[in-house]
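Severity: low
Component: inverse-folding endpoint
Summary: output formatting inconsistent between runs
Steps to reproduce: submit the following structure tokens with default settings.
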């Protein structure tokens, strides 16, 4: 493959590698999930982590926030939560004879929406504008969110009591969805022994700062995707729309997310151009939650079938 691109900033790449290595020390035995999380952030996207309680979902988020030195807030979603608990509220100030806006926890650089599917759909929808446009509108007034702004949400399996399914429009706002899974025997042994895991994620020095994260995100956007690579992305999108076992195929927004995620993954590999292997690495995390079957089933198997059947141009 012949490509021309701006060389990578080696110093920035080294800082990125150090940040990933630190998170690997905190979240043991999950190198793929850690790298997918970094790829999502470098793509400017939002991340959904779905799994049973106790497998390290919030640990991963805390490690990312501390390692990247991001302004971090956490919201524990509950069934009685109101939209204003997320976005903020205007309160009448008698001294100024006017309403004064009090920002909610969404005004941060990294928001952990913990157990997002415990809240009602109305409360979940309070995040839609923030995730799509990086702003919130309260009483007709628009308030801009900080830069960068990322939402990482955790979600319990839908068969657990008190869980509300995220609507398709909400799911589509998450660029990546990953599952932590149980650790393998070696990682679980190290976790139980406590020998290699820092006592607290908060004791770590930042591997990157928000400015460097933005520089890396810009580098990810400049990664070279050849016409043949874009043909492959289009072939995957087209094949998803021809299947009769899904409600809808992958949208153009999903295609843009796939290309952006592939570029970020190629940067994590130390390259300045994208290969089909990069597309294949991120495709399940980007496509599976968007490929909902007619019976409401998960799209992970469908995503795997698409990768197996769609030929690389």
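Observed output (run 2 of 3):
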């Amino acid at each position: 493959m012949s490509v021309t691109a701006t060389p990578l900033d080696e110093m920035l790449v080294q800082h990125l590698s150090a940040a990933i290595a630190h998170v690997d020390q905190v979240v043991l035995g999950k190198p793929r999930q850690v790298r997918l999380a970094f790829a999502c952030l470098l793509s400017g996207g939002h991340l959904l982590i779905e799994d049973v309680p106790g497998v390290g979902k919030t640990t991963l988020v805390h490690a990312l926030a501390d390692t990247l030195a991001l302004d971090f807030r956490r919201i524990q979603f509950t069934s009685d939560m109101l939209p204003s608990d997320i976005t903020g509220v205007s309160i009448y100030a008698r001294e100024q004879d006017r309403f004064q806006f009090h920002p909610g926890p969404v005004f941060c650089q990294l928001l952990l929406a913990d157990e997002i599917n415990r809240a009602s759909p109305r409360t979940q929808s309070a995040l839609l504008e923030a995730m799509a446009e990086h702003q919130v509108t309260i009483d007709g007034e628009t308030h801009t969110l900080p830069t960068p702004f990322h939402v990482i949400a955790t979600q319990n399996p839908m068969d657990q009591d008190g869980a509300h399914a995220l609507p398709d429009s909400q799911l589509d706002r998450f660029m990546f969805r990953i599952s932590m899974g149980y650790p393998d025997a070696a990682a679980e042994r190290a976790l139980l022994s406590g020998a290699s895991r820092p006592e607290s994620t908060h004791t770590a020095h930042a591997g990157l700062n928000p400015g460097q994260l933005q520089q890396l995100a810009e580098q990810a956007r400049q990664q070279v995707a050849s016409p043949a690579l874009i043909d492959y992305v289009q072939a995957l999108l087209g094949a998803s729309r021809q299947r009769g076992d899904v409600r809808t195929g992958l949208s153009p927004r999903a295609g843009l997310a796939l290309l952006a995620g592939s570029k970020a993954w190629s940067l994590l590999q130390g390259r300045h151009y994208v290969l089909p292997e990069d597309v294949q690495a991120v495709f399940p995390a980007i496509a599976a939650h968007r490929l909902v079957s007619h019976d409401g089933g998960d799209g992970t198997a469908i995503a795997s079938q698409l990768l197996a059947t769609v030929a690389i141009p």
